[in-house]
């Protein structure tokens, strides 16, 4: 054997730790501090300053393509302490906190799958995180997404460990600022963990009640910002509707595609709930969360590339037997959604621009299609077998055999794990 397990356990961390640490420092200290033309932090800082100094917060001109401040008053209250510092100091502090948050996310993801910091998994996850566009641009553009991922992983880990109140607090804090994780409350409802819903609703509501009278134009968030959030913009938008608006796709085709992905998501969620919630809760949680969020990104009015960060638990599910991520089309989609590569071309300018502007949309779409087809084929195999229980119990064993030397179980794997 070329790499005995004992050697691999020692050699892989030795290789990955220094590389991963340098990648963390490069993305945060060099690229993050340098920043880019797109600056998501400036409107947040200005809104916090206006909030503290009794100026209107929601009086922006939404006709420009500059980053806009879109957080609710509860999010403004959470961000307000940043305005106590000078702009540059506040930005550097935010980058530092985001970096710490992302490292904590890597640890929580490893813990979610039952591993500790001492194995190869932690440096491997850090390496994977900081290789992606989503993490790099979260630090370069200096936005809140790292904290959203932290709240998501805290929510999933707390649900898994039956700490329902804490699960609700984690997701409630993110909803108070950026309600992108709200669809995940469906998981708590489906798993009968009702207590998680209470703090998930009360935490953002309490922050909103406190913040509302402190802002001079809180009502404008409802009258001006909420309608804007419902509009489909044709720039920096990788949702189906945003992509369609940019390329001039017919409205009926955009509607058809959105409906198709909703139907795929409904089937995936039903199948996962029926066959995996009780037999493999971790697989059910991670894949269902990924399906919910990918559908939200594709079907909603706004889907930005760095939202892909929230799909890390779905990607990690590939290490679980029975994961619908165990196929190459899914990982071709992962490349599109996560790559930091630029696909612009000087020689094939028009073609390169199409690839670049479509890579995230196509990546999310391919991930969803691959997950859907994997589960659909599995469902059809179950119907043909006529006995769901025994076949489901055999899947982990068959997949493990398929990764080894083959044998009697190998042909059956090709049927159920397409």
TrEMBL record:
GO terms for cellular component: plasma membrane. Keywords: Cell membrane, Membrane, Transferase, Transmembrane, Transmembrane helix. It comes from the Bacteria. GO terms for molecular function: hexosyltransferase activity. The chain crosses the membrane at residues 92-114, 135-159, 165-189, 196-215, 252-273, 282-299, 364-380. It is a multi-pass membrane protein. Coiled coil: none annotated. Its main location: membrane. Pfam families: GT87. Residues 398-418 are annotated as: Disordered. It is found in: Cell membrane. Belongs to the glycosyltransferase 87 family. This is Arabinosyltransferase AftC. The lineage of its organism: Bacteria, Bacillati, Actinomycetota, Actinomycetes, Mycobacteriales. The gene is aftC.
């Amino acid at each position: 054997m070329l790499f005995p397990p004992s050697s691999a356990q020692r050699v892989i961390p030795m290789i990955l730790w220094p590389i991963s640490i340098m990648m963390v420092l490069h993305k945060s200290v060099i690229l993050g501090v340098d920043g880019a033309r797109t600056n998501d932090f400036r409107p947040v800082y200005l809104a916090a300053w206006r909030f503290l100094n009794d100026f209107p917060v929601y009086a922006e001109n939404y006709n420009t393509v500059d980053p806009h401040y879109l957080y609710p008053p509860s999010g403004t209250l959470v961000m307000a302490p940043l305005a106590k510092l000078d702009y540059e100091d506040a930005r550097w502090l935010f980058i530092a906190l985001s970096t710490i948050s992302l490292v904590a996310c890597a640890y929580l993801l490893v813990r979610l799958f039952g591993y500790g910091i001492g194995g190869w998994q932690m440096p491997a996850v850090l390496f994977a995180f900081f290789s992606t566009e989503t993490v790099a641009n979260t630090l370069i553009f200096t936005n809140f997404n790292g904290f959203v991922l932290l709240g998501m992983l805290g929510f999933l880990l707390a649900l898994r460990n039956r700490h329902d109140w804490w699960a609700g607090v984690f997701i409630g804090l993110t909803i108070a600022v950026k309600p992108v994780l709200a669809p995940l409350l469906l998981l708590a409802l489906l798993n009968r963990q009702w207590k998680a819903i209470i703090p998930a609703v009360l935490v953002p509501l309490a922050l909103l009640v406190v913040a509302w009278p402190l802002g001079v134009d809180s009502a404008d968030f409802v009258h001006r910002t909420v309608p804007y959030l419902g509009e489909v913009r044709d720039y920096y938008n990788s949702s189906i509707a945003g992509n369609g608006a940019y390329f001039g796709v017919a409205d009926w085709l955009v509607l058809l595609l959105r409906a198709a992905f909703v139907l795929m998501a409904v089937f995936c969620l039903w199948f996962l709930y029926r066959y995996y919630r009780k037999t493999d809760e971790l697989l059910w949680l991670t894949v269902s969360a990924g399906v919910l969020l990918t559908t939200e990104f594709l079907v909603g009015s706004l889907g930005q590339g760095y939202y892909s960060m929230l799909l890390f638990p779905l990607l990690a599910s590939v290490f679980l037997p029975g994961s619908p991520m165990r196929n190459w089309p899914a990982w071709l989609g992962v490349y599109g959604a996560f790559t930091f590569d630029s696909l612009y071309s000087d020689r094939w300018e028009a073609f390169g621009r199409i690839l670049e502007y479509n890579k995230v949309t196509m990546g999310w779409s391919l991930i969803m299609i691959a997950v859907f087809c994997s589960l659909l084929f599995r469902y059809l195999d179950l119907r043909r077998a006529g006995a769901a229980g025994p076949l489901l119990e055999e899947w982990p064993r068959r997949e493990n055999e398929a990764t080894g030397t083959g044998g009697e179980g190998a042909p059956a794997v090709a049927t159920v794990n397409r």
